[in-house]
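Fresh eyes needed here. Have a critical look at this protein's tokenised backbone.
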Amino acid sequence: MQTTEIEHLSQVLAAFYDATLDPVTWPAALEAACAYLDGAAANIFWQDPVVQSAVIFHSWNDDPEFIESYVSHYVRLNPFFPAITFIDPGVVFSGGDIIPHPEFHRTRFFEEWVQPQGLIDVIGVNLYRFSTSAACFSVRRSRAQGVVDEEMRRRMALIAPHVRRAVMIGREIDRQKSLSTKLGAILDSVTAGAFLVNATGRIDFTNEAGDALLKDGGLLRLRDGSLTAVDPEANHALRASLAATAVGTDVSLGLGSPSILLASRTGERFLAHVLPLSSGARQKASLGYSATAAIFVRRAEIPVVSGVEAIARSHKLTPSEMRVLQAVGTGGSVREIADALGVKSATVKTHLASIFRRTGARRRSDLLRQIASHGNPI
């Protein structure tokens, strides 16, 4: 019997949510995503183009030698950065959205690192953004599969909110805990406020940090024995997410934001993440509880906009111009910048001329002053 798309999607989402409690299964979840998206390889990684550093957290079907060469050398030649770090979390993007394919195919990065692996394109979504870096979920396509098409983009949009939610919750859970550990014991070790609740919000378990949030009463409180957000809009979103967990499928959480914003009376902002406990490893770990969901609440991390990003957005710089502007902040001659970016000196001069024209700067020292005045220096 052929699997329907909704059944296939449910299997993929279940794999990601189960990985929050069993991190060794992340590669299997990425493999499931590739099967659903028609991708050749996938990973979850972090990259900072300022310090030219990258960390691969989880991957499937990546060639270890190419990953090693990327981290040690090609990370600085990737022309998609820093542009990717400026894309808001949750927004699906492809390689062609950032750099036209013909231009990308002329880069050293494509010729020396992408093409030898038989790859042609990439689709991704940022999971987190920081001032100069981003954590990203990416899926690559082979030459045989072709460039990212609308069907792949549609399917990525379906799973992206769930991948973000799974990664956010996975950050909260102690990776050393085994699946044999009761979920209550796992949540006791979590620094975020954690609650086990049923579909109506009735609390089955609260950890120490969660108790503190309830006692404070600025964000959450008990009403008729059920967990309630003080802010009406946040409470509506929380009620909808919890009601969806009663359906018993991960798909029921839908395409909404993976986070519920909670604002206190003093202006502090927190995020709540809802993990359904409907199946697989999550259901096994929650035995002994009537809960249908685990809720994690933590103070929101607000990314600071860097000076480079502010200038790039304000003057509509191209991704290639963003790279050159980023490199200007590190100093060095035109030739040194060209060597660092893997392009010709003439290319750097062309991009600099365009940046000067767009920003009104006359020399690189003017650009440095603009970077400093628009936010954190680089």
About this structure: The longest helix spans residues 150-172. The radius of gyration is 23 Å. The chain is about 45% helix and 20% strand. The CA atoms of residues 27 and 74 lie 23 Å apart.
